Amino acid sequence: MMDFQPFLPWIAAILSVSALLAQAKSFFSSGEKVLDERLSRVEHTLVIHDRRVQKIENELEHLPSKEDVHELKLAIEKLNGVVGKLSGDMQTLSRTVDRIDAYLREETRS
């Protein structure tokens, strides 16, 4: 049988050093846990912001562009001109109808 007595102080020293290293690792990794929690919260917030940006980008695709709005303004101005001309024509027509009505009323009296 082999005698382990001379190795016992070395084994005790190795176990003590390994226990100290485990304690040191635990002490220094406790800050990592806090950072990991913060990082996961930040990642979650980033995902939420990314979804919001995607939603806004999708909505912006359907909105009219600057050129479209400019074309609409020009079309409205054109329509205003046409409506103004029609209004003038309607006034002329109204005066003509009034004259015809007045003439017919005079003719029926006489």
How would you describe the overall organization of this protein?
This protein has 110 residues and is mostly helical. Helices cover 90% and strands 0% of the residues. The chain has two helices and no strands. The chain is rod-shaped, with a radius of gyration of 46 Å.
Defining traits:
about 110 residues; mainly alpha; rod-shaped; 2 helices
- How far apart are the termini? 155 Å
As a percent range, the share of strand residues is under 5%
Structural class: mainly alpha
Query: What multimeric state do the chains show?
Result: single chain
Total count of strands: 0
- Summarize the amount of helix as a percent range: over 70%
Radius of gyration: 46 Å
Average pLDDT for all residues: 90
Q: Could you give a short account of the major beta sheet?
A: none
What is the H-and-E element order?
A: HH
Helix segment count? 2
The backbone outline, from C-alpha atoms, is rod-shaped
Low-confidence parts:
none
What is the topology?
Blueprint: H1 8-62, H2 66-109
Short description:
Helix content is 90%, strand content 0%. The chain is mainly alpha-helical and 110 residues long.
